[in-house]
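Consider the following assembly input.
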Amino acid sequence: MSIVNRVLLGFAALILLTGMLGLFAIRQMGDVRASTETILRRDLSVLRQVQQARDNQYRMRETRSSTVLRALGGDASGTAIGIAAWQGHSGRTEASLVALATTAQQLEGEALSPERRQAWRESAQIASRALSVYRRIAEQTAVQFEAMRSGSAAAAIAAADPLAQLNTEFDQLMEQLDAALDRLLRSGDARIEELYADSRLSVVVLLGVALLVAILLALLLRQSINRPLQAFTAFLERVGRGDLSGKAEITGGSEIARLAATLNSMVDGLRQIALQGREATENLNAAAAEIRASTQEQAASVEEQLAAVQETAATVDEITHSGTQIGKRAQEVIASAQATAQTSAAGVRAVDDTVQAMDSIREQAEAVASNIVALSEKTQAIGDIISTVNDISERSHLLALNAALEAAAAGEHGRSFAVVAAEMKTLADQAKEATGQVRSILGDIQRGINASVLLTEEAVKRVGAGKERTDTTRATITEITSRVQESVLTFQQIVASTNQQQLGIEQVMAALHNIRQASEQTAASTRQLDQAAGNLAGLSQQLVTLTERYRL
Amino acid sequence: MDRILEERTALLAAPHRHAAPPAPHARLLACGCGVEIHGIPLETVAEILPVRRCVRVPGAASPVIGASGWLGRLWAVVDLGAALGLAEAPPPEDLTGHLLRLRDQPRPVLLRVERVLGVVDADRADDAAPEAVPRGVVVGQALAPAGSLAAAPRLIGVLDPGRLLHPLVHPVPNGA
């Protein structure tokens, strides 16, 4: 069911409820009015009847009294008229009283409330009592009239007292009836109030129920309309945030379904646009990055070029500088070479002196060596002698031992010989000891001699080595002198060529300057390119950020 | 050794006692063999010779160094150290030391020692009876008094040369 139909249905329901409520209220009002009317009508009619009865009775009384007076006054015609009138009134009075009683009884049966019933009953009772009183009045009056006719005034007057009593009773009854009717009226009012209150209550209750139902209906309607709308709202919010990946559900009524389908198609369209946009911006981004990269490469290579040019310029500067330096140094070298030549001549002379000194040292050393050798031979001779002495001592030792042996073998006789043998042994030992000491001293001497020999030999060797070195030095100095003279010539040539080099370098410098200018221009233009590429990259990045808002 | 020193102390401390019998002493020929000194009783030695030319004898047992000609006879040269088992027998080519000619030897044998130090009057350091002497070569110990060989008293082993040379001069016949 479509939303419009639902809304219409809701409205229809509401209207129906309101109509029903109105009808009910009207009916209630009608009821109340009818009741009020009934009560008023009844009361008014009864009141009228009572009034009528009273009036008729009053006229009856008046007519009677006037008739009595006339009768007393001897007006027989007037009396007859009066009696006729009285009868007429009396008849009407009775009729009205009867009507009253019957009305009261009838209304008692139809009473609208217990109080009214009671009041009706009382009224009926009073009316019937009034009727009985009337009858008695009528009888009495008839008696009175009879008396009058018969001309007994005293009987007529005597009949007037009960009449008066009866009239008074009748009046009292009428007053009671008034009171009863008062109560009736009041109870009628109360009953009307009751009816009104009841009907008001029922109307109010029904109004409340109708309101509840209406609210319920409204809520149901709202819910049934709101749910799909909320779903759509949520979906659209997502789309608004950039999430194009969802789809609206198609359920329910035709309008909702149409709306859902339309929304889906719209979102599809957006998605397509976003996809294409994203692809395009990605391509753009990639292209911008490529351009950026290539411009940066170009910038880097231009920078390298510039750096290389500067390096070359610096190197050429250095070369120039060093060329001048070379010229200066060459001059200095020439001067120092000449000084060297002089110095080397002095050096050669010094070397010759050294050689002579070394020769004399060598002669001295050789003399020392020959002395030492003689000494050594003498020591050797001493050693031989010492070994002979040692030999002698050894033999003496053996001799002593053998003597001791013989002495021991000889026993007693050999005792003095044993002493001699012991002495000999002692001598032999001492000699051995002495030879030992001498040998050790000789050893020391020999070691000292050996050390001296070694030192002298070493000295001789060193002198020989020194002589060799001196010879080498002399040769070297001579060679140096000749080389220095050669180099003087060479340096003069160098100075000449350096001057020529200088001219060439100046030309190179000019060329480098041109190159540098060109490179700087290239660098400037490359920087501009790079900047442009950077801007492009920035823009494409912005685009990418924009398209990334949409989640597909 | 301590016992000897105590005895000596007692002797010196009691001069009024009649002199205790002197400890048996012997006259020994002190021979050095490495770091040890052995004593050979003087009565067993006939003569002391300087070392002589000695020739190798092929097939000779260890203590026998070689042979030497002297006084017209061929003498066997035996090394004391090798015979005692203390050292190797030196080669006969460059022999050093002294040669001893012993008395009462059935065969001509010369005992080679490294060095003859001298004659000492040594006190026997053991009181074993001669009968209880073991059947080894070293028959006892003796104490050389201070000053004879060294500054302090020195203990030397007493050898019996007969026993030393017995297995060499009385060879066991083969097949016996």
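Residues 359 and 463 of chain A are 8 Å apart (CA to CA). Ask yourself how this observation constrains the way the partners meet.
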